[in-house]
Amino acid sequence: MTPKEEIGFNANLYRALIDNDAAMRDKWAESGLNKLKKTLRSFDAHIEDGEILVEVSYDLKFNRRQYYRHHISYLISSLGAMEINTSLEVTGEDACTDLPRFGVTLELDKAFDHVTYYGRGDSENMPDFKAQSPVGIYSADVDEMYEMYVYPQESGMHCDTKWIQLADDENNLVRIYADDALSFSVHHFTQNMIDKAQHQEDLKKTDTTFLTLDGFTRGIGSSSCGPDTREEYRLNAKEGLAFGFTVIPLKG
């Protein structure tokens, strides 16, 4: 069975903790970034100029306290292309605003195993650690996108990405085009599985291709043994965050 926790695109404010998140892990835990529950706030769907527009808002809560509000809209064409715009608003007075990321996750069938992208590669990279990864077109299988650190943690991120393509063996495709630029990772494990694992042996591949798409990503700094992330690479959500992308499915 696939370990889909929820269906569709879900807000993602967390990452599987990395060694260098030592300075922030307690603050992120206080806002429950890895345990946020979404509650539907509003839903609307109507036809607009021959296309379907779906708009959804959720309250994101931890321990029954509301910290954030997530809005996502889907403009769906007659050919199946989806223009997606998503935004985050901080609503709790004591909510953490220095977030590890703001993005969305999507689970696909594990058959979507072949990745091609135009972004930074082919080695993993982060906003403050990317000079070694030039922008170009790269291809890999999903297993090759995961870095085997001794302690399981966030890995395989690729910044400054303009488009991503996931394909199965029958050449069925999902293409994603960034409005600006995205960071992404893709694994056969969910983020939650990686975050809970204590050893690489704890991770078992499952029937999923777990995709993270980030409009905003915090740098990694060096707080495992030194200073936290430099100010210009931190993510401040105080005034809200928003980004967009387009998804195009193609049948082989």
Please explain how this structure is put together.
By secondary structure, the protein is mainly beta. The protein has one domain: Beta-galactosidase, Chain A, domain 5 (Distorted Sandwich). Helices cover about 5% and strands about 45% of the residues. The protein has 2 helices and 12 strands. The protein has helices spanning about 25-30, 190-195; strands at about 10, 35-50, 50-60, 65-75, 80-90, 100-110, 115-120, 135-140, 160-165, 175-185, 210-215, 240-250. Strands 1, 2, 3, 4, 5, 6, 7, 8, 9, 10, 11 and 12 form a 12-stranded antiparallel β-sheet that branches. A hairpin with a 2-residue loop joins strand 3 (about 50-60) and strand 4 (about 65-75). It is globular and about 55 Å long.
Task: Say how many strands there are.
Answer: 12
Strand-pairing-aware structural class: mainly beta
> Low-confidence segments, ≥5 residues, pLDDT <50?
none
Q: Which architecture per CATH?
A: Distorted Sandwich
Shape: globular
Query: What proportion of the residues is helical, as a percent range?
Result: under 10%
Largest sheet: 12 strands, antiparallel
| Mean pLDDT over the full residue set | 94
Order of SSEs:
EHEEEEEEEEEHEE
Radius of gyration: 18 Å
CATH class: Mainly Beta
Total helical segments: 2
Determine the CATH topology.
Beta-galactosidase, Chain A, domain 5
Terminus-to-terminus distance: 25 Å
In total, the number of domains comes to 1
Query: How much of the polypeptide forms β-strand, as a percent range?
Result: over 45%
